[in-house]
Amino acid sequence: MSRKILIAGTAPMALALSGCMGGGGSVPSASTPITQQEAQQGAQYHPQLLSEFGGAMSGSQATYVEQVGKNIAVQSGLGNARDSFTVSLLNSPVNNAFAVPGGYIYSTRQLVSLMNNEAELAGVLGHEVGHVAARHSQRRQQAAQRNSILGVLGAIGSSILLGDSSIGNTVSRGFMQGSQLLTLRFSRKQELEADDLGILYLQRAGYDPKAMSTVLASLAAQNSLDARLQGRGNASVPEWASTHPDPASRVRTALAKTEGLGSGVTNRDTFLSRIDGMIYGDDPEQGVIEGSRFIHPELMLSFTAPQGFYMVNGTRAVSINGQSGKAQLTLAPYAGDLDSYIRQQFKTLGGEEQTLAPSSIQRTTVNGIRAAYGSARVNNGNSQVDVTIFAYEFSNDRAYHFQAITPAGQSNAFSSMFQSMRRITQREASAVIPRQVDVVTVRRGDTVSSLARRMAYDSNQVERFRVLNAMESSDTLRAGQKVKLVVRGR
User: Where is the LysM domain (predicted)?
Assistant: First the structure.
């Protein structure tokens, strides 16, 4: 929504690079240039993916990522790599990188912020180049056409949130299709193949090949921290949200692959100077998550997630996730009739395969906002689920709605959230200031604790600082060392 609507993605996805480094398998030959058909296919998907992930960033930071990506693409052996690859830095607060046919590779700014040197950036982009060079998407596309998940884009990708969801079938497909959680899903063998290629490209380019394992270690540490901050009992994403092998389980494999390969450059200082000032976390134009509260300073609204649920912010929807259900806040065209609006959202969720309609529609008022809601019970294999649409009229031509799925009889899990929607004041909106990366030089007397206190968070400052800078609990600082902080923008 910013009219870029809210929110997104990922489930902070423990994500994982749409190929997430590992090891094993043979390295395929990749000397065949990108074909015209592949280029046309990638060009078709490219604008849709940009839209799903906050758009492509511009400026010096995006140019730097592009340069590193094209340089590593040359190592693939593809005959037209430098000219054929399109490298995009995405304005997304989730940790992800992915690729589509035709030489289109992507990394989110959040994942770049988690990295600590140029070799790690090259490793992640090299992994994605490996997927392109090995034609992994085309193979997955053929399989998906036999068992489609998400329609057109689903042919080469799948929703992270959906995964192997037990809540869903047709309804879940429609429920998650508009979220920014779209990313590629490759087989484990293909992931390992891309890992091998990424390490090979690092070595050929003169980078330290161990960067593949260190960036995976940082991703695993961030996943673990996110799990604790979100109230999940372990570092894994819920089963229905998992599409990639856990990076923590692949660090040792990736490191073992680099034994005997020697070392190379990391270009740490250059990398840190280039990402200094990069926006970190949510972009206020897409709304921000502060603890259990979501606030959108441009749309002038706010709501609070129920206890025990966590949120992921994306370009087209805010996702609210928990073990007892999941929901999204999004918007759709509105012509001034809440009843018709709600019925249309049910119809959209049902799609062509299933007629879906609410049993009734109830009108109400929430914090002075005209609202209405309806529910429908849907068969889901041997069980049933409740689908609820709760809509709010903000003006004659603008409405927003939650769409929620819960086990039958448990739709009240989101009642407090439905009732928490409210308009915010201009003062509240003006107080939303984005966070950004601030690279500082350690001075004599600085400690982890003293620098961590400068982090723009109310809790877990030391833990956040250590993960951001790939520091173990026993690591200390030395004068002259450059480290990253997350501070409020100016």
Answer: 438-485
